[in-house]
Every structure is written in structure tokens, then in C-alpha cells.
């Protein structure tokens, strides 16, 4: 994010240009602030809706808890980027030759660090989701015992602490300084490497490897492996048509169509994650091979595609609602009641759908108590809705 804002003029500039053409700000950079800003704004709204839906009482499972946390993390990360891009690309401009206040530059630095922290937290929550789903699909007996809300909450706590500590070294890299220190002919503030970063080249290389391996490439490889194992399990189950006629997988467990949709939905989320994160990780990883100039090489290379890769990142943090609405009947049901029902009266009464509920709780996205809560809420809202056989109250499982 600060990739295109670190290497500043060396004092040869004597006057301040009047427009972006003089600042060599061309191409996509001219519209990056508007495009990414719009995506971030929608991303914040979408993630607020996701939190409202996944945190409902009727969806109290380990999966919904992780999805709620993922929405919070994504919402915070795109909000940080929204602040950054609004100031740096829309209100002012991406050049040290444009006057920037001290407060503005501190806003950029703080948003940069918080964006890294929240986005890394989001990445590893996504990995946790994949691990939980892998255990539930490929090892259902183990998954039934281990993938509980209590362990999901513990996982969230561990991931939060670990990613916060892993992100802390980045705070030593940037500092805000007065351009007058460079002897240029105009005033303003900009960002440069700290004296610690300049004196420790190995620190710069470590950051590149940390960012590339721990934050990007490592999680992407783990996600690809987990999604492949889950997809293979579903594929093998589909091939056993004799068993699948009765909805039985290779382990002898009943699989509901809704459970399949949820699993496929999480696989799609994983694929989007890999597509958005892997290119950034590869660039950072390669830069770690350039020891003496690692950080400079990283940002020099990154400057040509940095804005586009940033756009991919904020898209990754914003589009999950579209995936949920497309793939999850349960999400659509709760979205109508929770979000649309507040503005459109007809959506306050949810349409009736067949549940397909069985006694096998391994493959149910809602626990039996949660089903009772949802069914009771629907009864209250549809008590006056008549059908040919009386009042029909059922819930839609994912």
C-alpha cells in the first residue's frame, strides 16, 4: 500500500508541479482512488450485513462464529484502506511533491499498519474456516468432537494474538518527516525508512520474507491443499451414486444438499482468497532473494502493479456477501429477515421452505436448539399465513 510512496526525491526538485502529469502519476493511478474507494465503501456495508446475519441466534455454530469474525476482520481492513485511499489518492495525491500535512502522513502510516494487521487476521481466519470444514467433511467423527463453538472462539483468540505479534515488526519501518530536512524548495511531510531500517538491511529482508511467506504464500498453499482435499472428498462421494441416492458419503454419514452448498461456498471463498493473495506473496518472496536491495527491489517492482494488486486485496475483503447470497439458502433467509426486513415489510415474513432435517447432527449447519429458535421465530411471524393444509412453518438449512 505504501509501496509507491516510499522512495522520495533526493533534493533535486526545486519547485512544486501544478498537476499530476508533472508528477508522473498516470494510467490506473489516476482512478485508483475512486475505484478502490468505492469497493471499500461497499465492502464496509457488505461486511456489516454479514455480521448482522451470521451473528443471529439461529446460526450459533462454529462455522457461523468464524464467518462473523471473518466479516469483522474484512470490514476493519477495507475501512482502513478506505481512509488511506481517500486521503492519499482522492483528497491529495500520491506524490511527495504535493503538500501533505503531518497529520495526513500519520494517517497513512497508521492505516497502513492496521490494514496489514486486520488483513492478516482475516487471512488466517479463512485458513481456520478451511481447517474446520476439512475436519467436518473428511474426518466427521473428529470434527464432531473438535469443531465446537468453544474451540472456534479459542482459535479466534490465538489467531488474533499471533497475527498482532507477527505484524508488530512493521511498525519499525516507516516514519514521518519534514521535507525541509532534504533542503527542497517547498514544505510538507512525507514518509521514509527509519534509521533502524536503514542501518539493518537484514531487517528489511526479514520483513519481505515474513510478509511473503507467513502472510501470503504459506496461507495460500495451505488453502489450496485443504480445498483440494475437501473437493476430492465431495467428488468421491458424488461418484458413489448408490449411496448418494440415500445421501450417504464414503464414511457412512448423511450429507444434506444444504451442507454441500455451504462446503462449496467455503471452497469458493478459498479460491478467491488464493487468487487475490498469491501474486502479492510471490512478488514479496522474490524480493527477499535480493538481500542488499530487498526492500527497494520489492517496492520498485511492486510500483508497476501495486495499485492493481491492492484493488484485488480489497475486492477479496468485500465480495463474500455476493458468494453467501449466491450459494447459501440459509444466508438468504436470514438476510431477508435481518436486513431487508427492516426496510421492506414483506421480507419481514420469510417464505416457507422444506427443511430436510434429519437426526444426524454431523451434517447440520444449525444445531437442534438453534433450529428450535429459528422455527419458533418463524412461527411468530407466519402465524397468520394460511396454506391449503393450514400453517406451514419450516426453515431453510444451508
Structural overview:
The protein has a two-stranded antiparallel ribbon. It is globular and about 75 Å long. Helices cover 64% and strands 3% of the residues. With 398 residues, it is an all-alpha fold. Helix 3 (102-138) packs across helix 4 (140-146), helix 3 (102-138) runs parallel beside helix 7 and helix 11 (320-327) packs across helix 12. The chain starts with 28 loop residues before the first helix and ends in a 16-residue tail after the last helix.
Supply the key terms.
398 residues
The helicity comes to: 55-70%
Strand line-up across the major sheet: 1-2
Shape: globular
What is the mean pLDDT? 74
**Structure summary, number of beta strands:** 2
Tally of separate helices: 13
Distance between the termini: 37 Å
Please write out the topology.
Layout: H1 29-54, H2 62-91, H3 102-138, H4 140-146, H5 149-167, E1 174-178, E2 189-193, H6 195-199, H7 201-239, H8 241-244, H9 257-287, H10 294-316, H11 320-327, H12 329-338, H13 368-382
Antiparallel strand pairs: 1-2
Helix pairs in contact: 1-2, 1-10, 1-12, 2-3, 2-5, 3-4, 3-5, 3-7, 3-9, 7-9, 9-10, 9-11, 11-12
Would you kindly provide a brief summary of this structure?
This protein has 398 residues and is mainly alpha-helical. It has 13 helices and two strands, in the order H-H-H-H-H-E-E-H-H-H-H-H-H-H-H. The two termini are 37 Å apart.
Amino acid at each position: 500500500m505504501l509501496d509507491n510512496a516510499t522512495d522520495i526525491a533526493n533534493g533535486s526538485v526545486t519547485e512544486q508541479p501544478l498537476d499530476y502529469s508533472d508528477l508522473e502519476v498516470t494510467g490506473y493511478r489516476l482512478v485508483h482512488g475512486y475505484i478502490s474507494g468505492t469497493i471499500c465503501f461497499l465492502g464496509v456495508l457488505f461486511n456489516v450485513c454479514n455480521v448482522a446475519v451470521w451473528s443471529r441466534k439461529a446460526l450459533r455454530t462454529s462455522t457461523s462464529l468464524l464467518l462473523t469474525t471473518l466479516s469483522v476482520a474484512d470490514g476493519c481492513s477495507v475501512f482502513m484502506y478506505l481512509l488511506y485511499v481517500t486521503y492519499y489518492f482522492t483528497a491529495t495525491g500520491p506524490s511527495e511533491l504535493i503538500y501533505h500535512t503531518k497529520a495526513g502522513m500519520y494517517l497513512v502510516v497508521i492505516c497502513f499498519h492496521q490494514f496489514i494487521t486486520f488483513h492478516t487476521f482475516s487471512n488466517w481466519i479463512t485458513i481456520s474456516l478451511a481447517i474446520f470444514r476439512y475436519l467436518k467433511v473428511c474426518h466427521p467423527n473428529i470434527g464432531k468432537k473438535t469443531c465446537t463453538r468453544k474451540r472456534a472462539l479459542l482459535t479466534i483468540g490465538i489467531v488474533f494474538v499471533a497475527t498482532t505479534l507477527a505484524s508488530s515488526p512493521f511498525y519499525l519501518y516507516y516514519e514521518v518527516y519534514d521535507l525541509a530536512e532534504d533542503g527542497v524548495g517547498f514544505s510538507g511531510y512525507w514518509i521514509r525508512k527509519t534509521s533502524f531500517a536503514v542501518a539493518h538491511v537484514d531487517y528489511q529482508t526479514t520483513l519481505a520474507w515474513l510478509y511473503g511467506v507467513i502472510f501470503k504464500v504459506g496461507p495460500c498453499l495451505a488453502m489450496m491443499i485443504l480445498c483440494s482435499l475437501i473437493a476430492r472428498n465431495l467428488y468421491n462421494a458424488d461418484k458413489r451414486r448408490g449411496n448418494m441416492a440415500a445421501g450417504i458419503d464414503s464414511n457412512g454419514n448423511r450429507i444434506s444438499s444444504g451442507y454441500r452448498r455451504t462446503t462449496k461456498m467455503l471452497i469458493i471463498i478459498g479460491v478467491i482468497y488464493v487468487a487475490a493473495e498469491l501474486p502479492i506473496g510471490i512478488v514479496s518472496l522474490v524480493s527477499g532473494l535480493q538481500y542488499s536491495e530487498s526492500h527497494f527491489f520489492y517496492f520498485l517492482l511492486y510500483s508497476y502493479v501495486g495499485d492493481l494488486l491492492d484493488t484485488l486485496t480489497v475486492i477479496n475483503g468485500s465480495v463474500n456477501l455476493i458468494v453467501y447470497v449466491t450459494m447459501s439458502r440459509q444466508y438468504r433467509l436470514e438476510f431477508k429477515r435481518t436486513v431487508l426486513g427492516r426496510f421492506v415489510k414483506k421480507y419481514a415474513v420469510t417464505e416457507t421452505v422444506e427443511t430436510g432435517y434429519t437426526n444426524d447432527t454431523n451434517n447440520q449447519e444449525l444445531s437442534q436448539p438453534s433450529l428450535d429458535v429459528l422455527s419458533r421465530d418463524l412461527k411468530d411471524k407466519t402465524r397468520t399465513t394460511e396454506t391449503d393444509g393450514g400453517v406451514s412453518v419450516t426453515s431453510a438449512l444451508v
